[in-house]
UniProtKB/TrEMBL annotation, chain A:
One of its GO terms (cellular component) is nucleus. Keywords: Nucleus, Transcription, Transcription regulation. Residues 17-85 form the IBH1-like N-terminal domain. This is TRANSCRIPTION FACTOR IBH1-LIKE 1. One of its GO terms (molecular function) is protein dimerization activity.
TrEMBL record, chain B:
Residues 66-82 have a biased composition (Low complexity). Pfam families: HLH. Residues 91-103, 183-209, 219-228 have a biased composition (Polar residues). This is TRANSCRIPTION FACTOR BHLH83-RELATED. SMART domains: HLH. The keyword Zinc-finger does not apply. InterPro entries: bHLH_dom, HLH_DNA-bd_sf, IND-like. Keywords: DNA-binding, Nucleus, Transcription, Transcription regulation. It comes from Salix viminalis. GO terms for cellular component: nucleus. The keyword Isomerase does not apply. It is found in: Nucleus.
Amino acid sequence: MASKHTIATRHAQGIRARFASRFLRSLLRLRRRSNRFGGSQSNDEGIGKRIRTDRIKIAAYASMARAVGPRRTWSRALLFKLRNRARIHGVSRKRCLVSEKKRVTRNKVVVAISREPSRADTLRKLVPGGDSMDTCVLLEETAHYIKCLATQVTVMQSIADRLLL
Amino acid sequence: MRPCSREMQGMNSLFNPSSQIPLQDLQNQQIQNSHFDPNLSSNEDFLEQMLSSCSWADPKSPWDLNPPTNLPFPTNNSSSNSAKHRDLFNETPSSNSDSNNVGFRNNFDESVILASKLRQHQISCGNGAAVSDAAKMMLPQQLLMAVARGGLSLNDDIDGSLSQGGDGSIQGLFNGFGAGSMNGTDGASNQSMQHFNHPQGGAMQSPNLGAQGAAATTAVMNQPQASGSNGGAPAQPRQRVRARRGQATDPHSIAERLRRERIAERMKALQELVPNANKTDKASMLDEIIDYVKFLQLQVKVLSMSRLGGAAAVAPLVADMSSEAGGDCIQANDNGGSLARTTNGSQTASTNDNSLTVTEHQVAKMMEEDMGTAMQYLQGKGLCLMPISLATAISTATCHNRTSGIISSHAPMHQSNGEGPTSPSMSVLTVQSMTMGNGGGDGFAKDAASVSKP
């Protein structure tokens, strides 16, 4: 199985296959974890489903970032953020938000100019790790990010189609 | 003044091939602006008048607009005189760009005025001016430039390099003029005088003025810098290349142009990725990109929500993924386990049909207890109830292209739970169609089941 997995994650496979395999494995992990804690947990209306939604979403982003690898700035930034969030999430939720804000502001430019956020600033907020990039690099990272997001969406959609049969 | 202006145009036509800066308008304007007495004949009085009439020291430094550069311009000692003349004409675009709202409040006003007066005087002196006249012309010209430089250096606003350059430049200019110009003055000046007679064939390039003014001003601004940096180099600031738009020799503008080009090519690459990318405007293109990224992130969120029912049944999918070397096929062989787990079902199914049956049983059971929970359960799976007739119609409509497995089963209530009063005419139909690699377009066509109560 390990050799098959490594074969599947060769670069020749393309990002789609790598993302799909990682995402499926993380979904499996999620299911095992949720079932270990009892079947009733997933039946909670409202908060339970939201938590599960978030976990699936985070799993999707994490698997995509790992499939891309540390080659890209946005994937590195995304992995860093998720790792910190996972670390801090274990401690407490409130502290997580605060420290995330602190982390974000540290990267931002210190000069506090009260101007309308330009389009480049909006894009920086959307793309992970976009704060510490100049415009030229930002556009390049955005292109790769869009490509990976599109493959992520198609893979997730096909998985959903298959699973709900 | 008109013949003088035409002569000016002639002079301009001489320099137009090299510079493409329309100087006719400039000079015409300056002729109007200058308070030059054309009737003055003697050189000495002329010089005095020039010096007295020029206005010094506009305290606002125009140098702030353009960053000072010390780029040494290509110097050509051979054609000193023509370069000097060119210099004079170089000064004029700045003032005209001023009038064209480039916003260049220049210290060149005085030098421009001096230049125009000089030219006029030269012209009025006649074309066949004597050598002595030409020589005397050179002298006020040199003094003009020197004074202009000195006037510039007097300004406090000019940054240090420029002021130092200004001081040094005067010396340099003097040396340059002394070394280069006065020696070759006679023949060159005669030549230049004859050039003044050149017929006014130069095309009016007034539209280029605003565009060229910017490029020219950078070149002009660089000139004192270059002269300052050269220091005592003889006649070097005179032979610099005038920059055209898009061909500026300034390293800053080159770097900026490179940056702009890189951004443009990245935008083009992005345009192919983003749909509806027919916008030519960079700003609206950025808006489209932002919207598309937000849309994709929202889609990921929605898909993770719809995964609530089926996330558990991943094991067979993973097995299939690892066994296949190919990329895209994800075959779902077993998803009954998910339904069993999530719904506390008692049955464990291993085939599609069984899973559907299990779903239906579950739905039927829940419908007994509470319609609301049944509906929510179905919604969580992305299913809905629909009449059988509609389901069959949809299935026949969509089944021709794709491998669609449509499973319809009637599960009357009395079969599933065998208890309680059930309406025999109620039918639960589950319609699901497999779509291979479909976009999200007809997602609602799949997984549809609706109930119709008679």
